[in-house]
Amino acid sequence: MKFRLAFGLLACVLLGGWTSVPEGSGPGPGVGKADGYPLPRFVSLRTNEVNFRAGPGFQYPVVWVYQRQDLPVEVIGEFDVWRKLLAPDGGTGWVHEATIRSRRSFIVTSQQASLRASPNSGATVVAFLNFGVSGNLLRCPGASDWCKASTGHVTGYLAREDFWGAFPGEMIGTQ
């Protein structure tokens, strides 16, 4: 009994250093203690295979393996070189900072999204993007409901309501 209590207290002390904020409240207002970047924030997976672990360290078991380079993920916590992520499907886990990068990306969450020639709903459709299609976010003006995005060899404007990978009103890229 005393061993369990001592172990539990030690675990609380060791894990007490990680920072976590409510998912989806983004970007900022928190600032990560380990890297100084805003929490929460969006990043993307660096490779085609990233292990999500149960805790911040290699000693923790892998709970999810994401196999999609450039998948947008939300950083919701950090501890030393470990980042706690929220994936678009709701999965969470800890990854080493070397497995993510700051490149901004998106994943379509509506059944079908229209990539348009200009940032308005009446503009010519450049491409139809089905649920799960991903690509790069190039620019999102803070006050706009549209973001400039590219996927494959096509570039256009995507309505924020049709994808996951940017916070409402978040400014991305040069304006």
Report on the architecture of this protein.
8% of the residues lie in helices and 43% in strands. It is mainly β and 175 residues long. The chain folds into two domains: 23-103, SH3 type barrels (Roll); 106-164, SH3 type barrels, CATH 2.30.30. Strands 1, 4, 7, 8, 9 and 10 form a six-stranded antiparallel beta sheet that branches. A hairpin with a 5-residue loop joins strand 8 and strand 9 (92-96).
Brief characterization of the structure:
The chain is mainly β. The protein is 8% helix and 43% strand.
CATH superfamily of the largest domain: SH3 Domains
Instruction: Output the structural class.
Output: mainly beta
Which stretches are low in confidence, meaning pLDDT under 50 for 5 or more residues running?
A: 1-25
- CATH topology of the largest domain, which one? SH3 type barrels
Mean pLDDT: 86
Beta-strand portion reads: 35-45%
User: Mind telling me the C-alpha Rg?
Assistant: 18 Å
Q: What is the 3D shape? A: globular
What's the CATH architecture of the largest domain? Roll
* Overall number of strands: 17
End-to-end separation in angstroms reads: 60 Å
The CATH class designation of the largest domain is: Mainly Beta
| Main pleated sheet | 6 strands, antiparallel
Helix content: under 10%
Number of domains: 2
Number of helices: 1
Order of helices and strands: HEEEEEEEEEEEEEEEEE
For this entry, give a set of tags.
175 residues, mainly beta, SH3 type barrels, 2 domains, six-stranded antiparallel β-sheet, five-stranded antiparallel β-sheet, 17 strands
